[in-house]
Write the structure tokens for this entry.
Amino acid sequence: MAKVILLRGRPGVGKTTISNRLGSDLNIPIIRKDDFYDVIANYNEDHEQRNKVSYGILYRLLQTNACSNVQYILDFPFNKEQEMRNFTHWLENHNYVLKSILCICSDEKIWADRFNIRKLNPLPNQLITDFDKLKNYYKDLSIRPMGGELVVDTIESVDSILDKVVAYLQ
């Protein structure tokens, strides 16, 4: 049975840092929304369309490989509860096992510092590079965990987080 390890959460919480280490340590390929988005940005200026196409590519890749006994690490935000429910249902219908990890950053100063670094050289997918603008955009920075989902706080060391993630995946 195919398996998806999803790292999700708000922008700047550390999904990419964790997915890079996890992919390297476990030798599992990473599929990242931002990779799709940044390429699409070269051809389409509309943010909503770029997002829609990025998610469409994800679903198509997963559908194509559903019959394989593959594992993927997904670095996709899935910020909205309904989106996450729909994705979970879709995976179940396509015989995928989902192990979801919600990444949070409980220290707003650390989180804001990450945005200040982004501001220096933002990628096309990094439309918001100011933490106050992020707070205004989302209104509520928290995301409610789904049932059975591991929550990791990225104020902890990457090694500590990876220990928790690996234990959760077993």
About this structure: The radius of gyration is 16 Å. The CA atoms of residues 120 and 129 lie 9 Å apart. The chain has one domain: 2-169.
